[in-house]
Amino acid sequence: IQVPLNQKNIILIGFMGAGKTTIGQLLAEKLGREFLDADQEIERRHGMPVTEIFKSMGEPVFRQMEKEYLVELCRTSREKVVSLGGGSFMQDEIRNACLDSGIVYHLDLDWESWLKRFEALIDTRPILQSKSLEEVRALFDSRKLIYADNHYTVAVDQLSPEEIAENMARQIR
Ligand code: S3P
Questions:
Q1: What is the reported pTM?
Q2: What is the mean pLDDT of the chain?
């Protein structure tokens, strides 16, 4: 089904810590749209924090939950602002569903800026806990290629979340 442009969801992707949730919330307020954070919705549905889902059930179970939630959301929702998890776009079905139903924005930051955020992320991001810094860097680089493919890119290194959301809102309105 083709969704008219003004009814499309606004979908935010990017690496952990890029600011998807913060910017998404601000952007939704500015556009007068409803905001949804995929990880928070999965936590609510399953009554468990993402860290706990990873720990007790493993990553494949989390990826399945993520796919079920997001494919369904894309099929049934219009005009929302949705922040995805950093790994969501690695699943073809999620990527295709999002591209059908939404306009996708990649929140992009460089490795040096990201490193400054690392400490604040480690406790709540199981993906980071099981990897060396070299492995995280490799993941950062390989995912960036997928995030950047055919989506709008918004640089988040230099501006505050408020400024970024305002710039995006102006472009979308
Ligand atoms: C993940 C990112 C997290 C969360 C989960 C896995 C990833 O979301 O979905 O811990 O694989 O990059 P954020 O990008 O919101 O941190």
A1: 0.97
A2: 96
